Amino acid sequence: MPSLLSNLKSAREYLTPTLKSSAFLTRGVLTPEEFVKAGDELVYKCPTWTWEGGDPSKRKAHLPPDKQFLMTRNVPCTERVSSLENVVAVSHSEGASADGGGGDDDDDGDWLVSQVLSAEEKKKHDEKELEDEFDILDDEGEVVAEKKLAAMTLGDAAAGGEAGKESNTKSDADVAAATDDAGDDDEYADMDDFEDDDIMEDEAAVTSPAVTADATTSTNDDILKVRTYDLSITYDKYYQTPRIWLMGYADDGSSRPLTGDEMMQDVISDYAHRTVTIENHPHVHGPHASIHPCQHGAVMKTIVRNLTKDQAEGEESGPTVEVYLFIFLKFVSSMIPTISYDFTMDVSASTKK
Questions:
Q1: 63 CB contacts (<8 Å, ≥6 apart)?
Q2: If you ran DSSP here, which 8-state letter would residue 28 be given?
Q3: Is the backbone of residue 46 left (phi > 0), alpha (psi -120 to 50) or beta?
Q4: What pLDDT, on the 0 to 100 scale, is given for residue 316?
Q5: Out of 96, 250, 294, 321, which one is annotated catalytic?
Q6: Is the separation of the CB atoms in 276 and 264 below 8 Å?
């Protein structure tokens, strides 16, 4: 089935005329020349990305032979996306509640995803909830206010400090006396005793290699084994936008390619098997997970427009074609948040229309 779909889409792309004039600002799409220019900037700023020529028999005439697609390899994926999906960002949910759970719907199709919390953010959120859930009571069973609690804490610390000073004075005298006694006993200690002890320790280290082996095994067990991904970016002539492809590998050290269902574990569930599907790569052998580009142009147009507006208010020039792939990789990361690929630049832009 993926092969049939890929063949039909290849034929459709082949028959589509190549975009000649720039429509980056007006439609959020690229010409092949602009794709190459944006790719050159990505490779320059992020050396983990490289240009690839691919199979000569599958090369596209509208792209240079040595710049058919972009590739980054061995990208770590430390956890399954389900660990993030179970917590929706508090600010997002509280904002929706404050607005009555409604508001104007953005016409972005099935693309944008609700904000999710990272593992660190989730931990902080859980700790705050725990603190809010349990109140500290005084001797009369009333809730202690924060300022009162701080005053009580300082008072206890001061009282403890006075008691500690008296105790430390006595302890110092006792320690000094004990030290003098010990000094008298050990003044004429036999150095041969220390030498013999060292020899016995050296012999024990030589005759027990099993300890070293156990330590090595323990160290290897502490190494975090993670899935890795090869990511590539091609130019889709039909949609006139970049397209992301993913090939994952198991975390057991065997370099076994992940199945389609396994790769979908690293995709936000709203998009798995819908926006993200399994298809044959146009240049690399074998089926890959691919993010469908049907909404790429519309979303990129919205982001670029908002960036242009924000920068115009700050008297700065708007975004150029060179930063297209940085913006593109930024919003794609909302669909595959646990795959830690590099796009270096900190891109912040609204998708609100």
A1: 32, 35, 36, 235
A2: S
A3: beta
A4: 61
A5: 294
A6: yes
Provide the residue count of the chain. 353
Six-digit token pair at 107? 């016409």
Over residues 236-248, mean pLDDT: 96
Bridge partners (DSSP) of residue 232 are 71, 245
Q: Are 44 and 326 in contact (CB under 8 A)?
A: no
Cα(183)–Cα(175) distance, rounded to whole angstroms?
12
Q: Cα–Cα distances in Å, from 353 out to 94, 215, 252, 292, 303?
A: 21, 58, 45, 22, 9
Q: What is the DSSP string of 135-146?
A: --B-TTSPBPPH
Is 294 a catalytic site residue?
A: yes
CA distance readout (Å), 295 to 94, 106, 108, 241, 243 = 28, 13, 8, 10, 11
223: pLDDT strictly greater than 90: no
Each residue of 110-169: pLDDT tens digit?
444 445 555 566 667 666 666 665 555 555 656 555 555 556 555 555 555 555 555 555
Secondary structure tally for the chain: helices H, strands E:
12, 6
Q: 168 or 287: which carries more pLDDT confidence?
A: 287
